[in-house]
Specification:
By secondary structure, this protein is an alpha/beta fold. The protein has a single domain, classed as Macrophage Migration Inhibitory Factor, CATH 3.30.429.10. The chain is built from 4 helices and 4 strands. Helix 2 links the parallel strand 3 and strand 4. Helix 1 packs antiparallel against helix 2. It is globular, with a radius of gyration of 17 Å. The mean pLDDT is 94.
Length: 136
């Protein structure tokens, strides 16, 4: 499982193509091959209250918090984190060149004792991927 939360400053409203960023980050995570599609969640939130660096109103940020299930070694997690970060940087390159922007990604591994889940998405995704005959 990987849950990706994209938080961004509200001064990016209208300048940030969120659907495209969400799709790029989601696909980059899946492309690592270590996260099952049924466990993937990617969403974004705008932060209205913030102060960045010297407080100039042009300063902006985009931060990705990635929470992953337990069981992957640090090197595997690092490689996945880098791939997701590269995708985000690619999508945000034009903004980065045109304004003061802080980009960051952080990955956290969930404690298996403190992470409860109930998920039937895996079965639905498998049936959809198998095609119409499998759904009948």
């Amino acid at each position: 499982m990987a849950h990706i939360v994209i938080e961004h400053s509200s001064n990016l409203r209208g300048r940030l193509d969120l659907p495209r960023l969400i799709e790029a980050v989601h696909q980059a995570a899946l492309a690592t091959g270590i996260f099952p599609i049924g466990g993937m969640r990617t969403r974004a939130y705008e932060s209205e209250s913030y102060r960045i660096a010297d407080g100039h109103p042009d300063n902006a940020f985009v931060h990705l918090s990635i929470r992953v299930g337990h069981g992957r070694d640090p090197a595997t997690r690092r490689a996945a984190c880098e791939r997701i970060f590269e995708a985000a940087c690619g999508e945000l390159a034009a903004l980065f060149e045109s304004m003061p922007l802080g980009l960051s990604v952080e990955m956290q591994e969930l404690d298996p004792q403190l992470s409860l889940k109930k998920n039937n998405l895996h079965e639905y995704v498998k049936r959809r991927q198998a095609g119409p005959a499998a759904r009948a």
